[in-house]
Amino acid sequence: xxxxxxxMGITLGIVAALQPLEAASPRLSTISPRGVQRGVEHxxxxxxxxxxxxxxxxxxxxxxxxxxxxxxxxxxxxxxxVAPDCRLGEHVAQVRTASGISDYRTIWVEDLPVAEEVExxxxxxxxxxxxxxxxxxxxxxxEDVDYYxxxxxxxxxxxxxxxxxxxxxxxxxxxxxxxxxxxxxxATNDDTALALQDGFASIIAPEDGKYIIEVRESAxxxxxxxxxxxxxxxxxxxxxxxxxxxxxPIDVRFLGMPTGEHVQxxxxxxxxxxxxxxxxxxxGGTAPTPNDFRLFEHGNAFEQEPNNEIAQGTPAELPLxxxxxxxxxxxxxxxxxxxxxxxxxxxxxxxxxxxSGLDPVMNLxxxxxxxxxxxxxxxxxxSYIRFTVPEDAEYVxxxxxxxxxxxxxxxxxxxxxxxxxxxxxxxxxxxxYGQFRQxxxxxxxxxxxxxxxxxxxxxxxxxxxxxxNLPPGITMHCxxxxxxxxxxxxxxxxxxxxxLNGALVDFIAKHADPAQDISGGFQNRADYIISxxxxxxxxxxxxxxxxxxxxxxxxxxxxxxxPKVPLVRDGSMEVKIVAKKKEGWDExxxxxxxxxxxxxxxxxxxxxxKGQSEVLYPINANGGAEIKHWKVFALGTAAGMWASxxxxxxxxxxxxxxxxxxxxxxxxxxxxQVLCKINHTTPFEGEAKAELxxxxxxxxxxxxxxxxxxxxxxxxxxxxxxxxxxxxxLFCQITIPQNGESIVSRAGNVELQIDKPLPxxxxxxxxxxxxxxxxxxAPTPEKPAEAPKAKPLTRLExxxxxxxxxxxxxxxx
Length: 813
Known about the structure:
Layout: E1 10-11, H1 12-15, E2 27-32, E3 35-37, E4 41-49, E5 54-59, E6 64-72, E7 75-82, E8 89-97, E9 100-110, E10 114-116, E11 128-129, E12 134-139, E13 145-152, E14 157-163, E15 174-180, E16 185-189, E17 200-204, E18 209-217, E19 225-231, E20 238-240, E21 243-245, E22 249-255, E23 262-267, E24 277-278, E25 281-282, E26 285-286, E27 291-292, E28 294-296, E29 300-302, E30 314-315, E31 321-325, E32 332-339, E33 344-350, E34 360-366, E35 371-375, E36 383-388, E37 393-401, E38 411-418, E39 422-426, E40 440-443, E41 447-457, E42 463-465, E43 474-477, E44 487-494, E45 501-505, E46 508-511, E47 519-522, E48 524-530, E49 537-543, E50 546-551, E51 556-560, E52 567-568, E53 571-581, E54 589-592, E55 600-602, E56 606-608, E57 614-621, E58 628-632, E59 635-638, E60 641-644, E61 648-653, E62 657-661, E63 664-667, E64 671-680, E65 688-693, E66 699-701, E67 704-706, E68 712-719, E69 726-738, E70 741-755, H2 795-811
Parallel strand pairs: 3-9, 10-12, 11-13, 21-28, 29-31, 30-32, 39-47, 40-50, 52-61, 63-70
Antiparallel strand pairs: 1-48, 2-4, 4-7, 5-8, 6-7, 8-9, 12-19, 13-18, 14-17, 14-19, 15-16, 15-18, 20-22, 22-23, 24-27, 25-26, 31-38, 32-37, 33-36, 33-38, 34-35, 34-37, 39-41, 41-44, 42-46, 43-44, 45-50, 46-47, 48-49, 51-53, 53-57, 53-70, 54-56, 54-59, 55-57, 58-61, 59-60, 62-64, 64-68, 65-67, ...
C-alpha cells in the first residue's frame, strides 16, 4: 500500500495544465477513453490547450490508422482504427498542430470489449452485472467501492486485473478482490511486483455460482479512472527464464497462476525492441499486459540443485545468462564460471527490473571461497558489480534474497556483459516536470534552435549529428560536439515553401572517427506521477524518437549581427540581435541565449520592446573560458511563437593585455598613485583606453591611453578631506579598438586604502615662521636641468618611509 502522504503528490498528466502556458503552444493533458480495443474503430478525445488547429496524431508504435482529426478549441476529436495485431498494453501518442507539437501521453490497447461502469454499484448486495471477458471503464470516488458480479462454473478460472496507477492519470493506489456470494474473500491484492501499485487476483471457481469483484482505493481515499479486466485469461506473475537470445525460439514458463505453470513457445525478435514483453496465451484468452522479458545477445544457462554452497556451484560458460529461482526461504544459488585475467564484465542481476518479487544480493568469489565483491541495491533493489578479472581462474557468483525469503516465482537472471560504449541524446528540460520544447517545431521560412545533450558511456571523443530522415523541407545546422562537451547548439531551418508536416525521427549521433563503430539515439522521459515535488517518481514514460514538424510561419525573424572582434577572457561583449517584424505586427520579443560555451555567461533573457527592432545582449567570459571558435544562437519568443537566429560564430580569445597593479594608500585629501605593469599577449593597432573602476565616492581618477608598446602606466587618484576611510577594491578595465568595434576586458584588480591623517605629536612646538629675506634683487639663475620623474613609491615603501619619519621626529625631541 502507498503511504498516505503519497496522496499529497502531484499528477503530472494534469499538472501540464498548471504550467505557464504559451498562447500558441499546444499542450496535451489526457487522452480519453484511456483504453481501446484492438481490431475496432474508435473516436478518442485529446484534451489540453491550443489544439484547435490539430492536424496529425503521432503514434510511436505501429498498429494505429488515423482516419480523421478535428480540432475544436482545447480538444481534438480523432477517429482511429486499431489493427487486430496491435501490441497489447501501453502506447504513446501526441498531437501535431499547425503551430506546434504537444506533450506525449499514453493510451492502452486492450483485447476485450468494454463495459461502462453504471452507478449505483457501491453495495455488495447490489453489484453491477457484467460478462466475463470484458474491460470495465470505471471510476472510484472518495470512500467509494465498486462491485461487479459475474457468473462462473466450477473449475473455471476467474481473473481480475486492474490498470489504474499505470494509466498515469492520478495518484490512485487500487485494491482488488474476488469474493463469493457469502462475502468470503477468495483472493485479494493491493500492490504487486508485476504491476507495482496496481493489482490482480485470480482463482479457480470452487463451484457454480456468482462471484463478486471488488474495486476501491486501498485506504478508501479518493481514486480515479481505472480499466478493470475481468475474464478467464491467464495472469502469470513472472516469466521464466526472463530473457533469451534475440532471433531464436524459446520455451517460456509462465509462473504464479492458480492453474499452475504454463509453457509457451515464443520466437524472439531479431533486434532490440523498446519495453519488450511476453504475453501468456492459453485457451482462456490472452493476458492483458505483458511480463517483462530481456532480449540478449547470448543464450541461457540454468541452475541445477543442489547449488547452495560455493563448492556446489552450477557450472556455466560465459557469456551465457544465468537463470534461477530462489524457491525456498534461505535458498542460495551459486554458479561457477571460468574467466581470463583482464576481462572486464558488467555483472547485472535482474529481478525487480523483470518484475520478480526477489530483492537480490549478489556476491563474487574465487572458487576456493575467497571473497571478491558484493552488492545489494546498485540498480534500485537489483544488484550490479563491475568485475575486472584478476587472474585466469574459476570464479563463483552467488545470489540470494536480502530478507532470506523464497518462493516459486522469485525469479532472477544474471548477465555478464562486456563493457561497451553507450551514447544517448536528449534535449534539456525547460520545465521541471513538463515536456515543453522537448520537440523541434520549425516555422516555414524560419529557424528553430535547441540544445542537444549527449551522454557518453565508456568512451570519449567528438560526436557528429547525422540529421537523417528529417521531415521534408527541414535542414539541420551544427558543428561536431567536442570531446569535452556534453551539449551542442543545433539550428533547424525550414524553407518558405515547405508543407506543414511532421515525423517521429530516429535522431542519431555517431563518433566523429569513422573507425569507431559507436552511435546512439534520442531518448526522452515524461514524468507523470510523483509523490511530491522532488520526491518519488511513480509513473513515467520513455520514448526513443524525436518529434519534429514544419509549422505555420511566425511574424518575425531574428538575426545575430556577427561580432567582428573576439570575446576575450575576463572580458565582456554586447551581441546585437536584430528583429525583422512582419508589417502590421509589432509585439515585444523575448530573447534567450541558450548555449554558452565553456566559461561564458549571459543574462537569462532580454527583450526587444514593442516599437523597436534590435537589442544588445550582454555576455561575458571568465578567466578560464575555453579559447576556440564556437557557434551560438539566440532564441526568440512572442505570444507563444518561437524562432531562432542563425548559428553564428563567436571567437573566444585570450585577453590582449593584463595589468599587474600595485596596492596603494594615502590619507584623506592627498593623492595616491597606482603603478601598472602591462603584460601584452596579443599586439593591436592604435591606442587603447585603460580605466580604474569601482572608485569610491569623492575620489577621482582620469582614464589613460596606451599602445602595444607601452609597458607601464600610472594612475593618479585624488581624494578629498572626507573621502571614505577604509580599503576599497578597484579594477582596471581596458578597451581595445579593432575592426570598428571594441574588445573590453578586465585587466586586473588593486586595493586602495584611505586613512585618516595622523594627529600631531603632543607637546610638539609649533614650527617657527620662516625668516623674511632682505629685499635685494635676486640674480637670474640659470635654468636647471629637468630632474628625472620620480617613480611612485610602492605601498610597502610608503609604510617604511612613514615609520622612518616618525622615528626621526621622536629622536629630535
